[in-house]
Amino acid sequence: MARTVEAAAIQRPTFTNWPNSVFTMAHGRSREECDAVLDAIAEQTGIEGRATLYSSTEFKKIRLLYFTEDFKNWETQHA
To answer: What number is the average pLDDT over the span 51-79?
Structure first.
């Protein structure tokens, strides 16, 4: 499962207290929608076990603008 409309897989390093290296971000408007996406992926791939973490807050996403006058000013002040 690399990518679908509802989900994307991400590989991360493992840690002693978190041995999982592949994460799947499922998108939905509710836990039930997300679970349905994850259930479909599990059925398609044969994956039987998973740990599901749900977001508690959605942060506003903004597009970053590079090489603007504000960026140059910030870089001058913080470089």
So the answer is: 84
